[in-house]
Amino acid sequence: ASFAEDDDDKKVEDKAGPKLVHDEERDKGKVSMGTYGKYFRNGGIVLSVFTLSLCVIGQVILTLTDYFLRIWAGAQDQRHPIFVVLFAALVTSTLVIGVVRSWLFFRVSIQSSSTLHGQMFQAVVGAPLWFFTANPSGRILNKFSKDQGAVDEQLPVIFFQSLQLALFCLSAIVLAVVSIPWILLLLIPLAFLFLRTRRQYLNCSRELKRLEAIAASPIFAEFSSSLAGLTSIRAAGLEDSIQRHFLSLLDKYGRGFFSFLLTARWFGFRLDMQCALLLQAVALLAVALRDFLDPGLVGFA
Predict the structure, then answer these.
(1) pLDDT tens track for 208-233
(2) Cα–chain-centroid distance for residue 131?
(3) Across residues 33-61, what is the average pLDDT?
(4) Is the pLDDT reported for residue 5 higher than 50?
(5) Residue 87: CB partners within 8 Å, gap ≥ 6?
(6) Residue-wise DSSP of 210-240
(7) What are phi and psi of 202, to 5 degrees?
């Protein structure tokens, strides 16, 4: 409702004539692959490709380590030193690659964030005077504080965790298919359901985050202007009016943030249900086809 009211206010202001302060714009639609590519290019294209390759190699070695335990458990001479040496080498490689890829990934993220901040600062410093008239100081502060803070603190962690989880899920699905090929009959409709749920979530959550980012700018602008005109506000006795207006801005921002949390819970619940369905299918098929499957491979999956 609040966003609809903003559209009505915009129409009224347009009829009144051109505005001195422009409305904050936002992108629409999905985030293009060029945006992700630019993010990694800012961190160094060679280092980024090497880091992503280490993430894939690390997941492959981790899967081989688990598979090696199955081979070791089925061997006749389990006390042979070669098993201990190979297992120690795989575990050490997994540990070293895990540490190196984490350090390199966050180094790329820091370099990309620093480059983005420098480009944004140069653009603001070199902007003409009308830019500062059309854009309130709170809007500029919002970009350099909240938005840049999300790029510095939240994006690297979420990006790295998402990459790790994606590789882990992919390896788990491959193992399940290799162990029980009949699981493909369930994976196809599950993949369709997952992509459909993902599309619904992204279309909604993406726009909510953009609306939330826009709703934060008036808060910074109101706070800075209230501090600058604090003497005039007290002299005119407008403390209650300013406070109510500031609380209404906080309420508008909170609606967008809370709506985003609701969509995240909605998506998480459906993902949990789909994962539970897949695990149940693997367990039931393993029992039903126990005479035709390798017990060690099924346990590994």
Answers:
(1) 888 888 888 788 878 878 888 888 88
(2) 31
(3) 87
(4) no
(5) 65, 68, 69, 72
(6) HHHHHHHHHHHHHHHHHHHTHHHHHHHT-HH
(7) -65, -40
Q: For 13-26, write each residue's pLDDT tens digit.
A: 444 455 666 666 66
Between CA 235 and CA 249 the distance in angstroms is 23
The letter for the amino acid at 187 is L
Helix (H) or strand (E) holding 117: helix 81-125
- When the pLDDT of each residue in the chain is averaged and rounded to a whole number, the result is 81
pTM of the model: 0.71
Q: How many CA atoms lie within 13 A of 299 on its CB side?
A: 10
- HSE-CB of 278 using CA atoms within 13 angstroms: 22
Burial class from Cβ neighbours inside 10 Å (0-12, 13-18, 19+) for residue 209 reads middle
Q: How far, in Å, CA of 153 to CA of 40, rounded?
A: 16
- Single-letter amino acid code for the residue at 215: A
In the numeric block, the tokens 């070199």 are attached to: 126
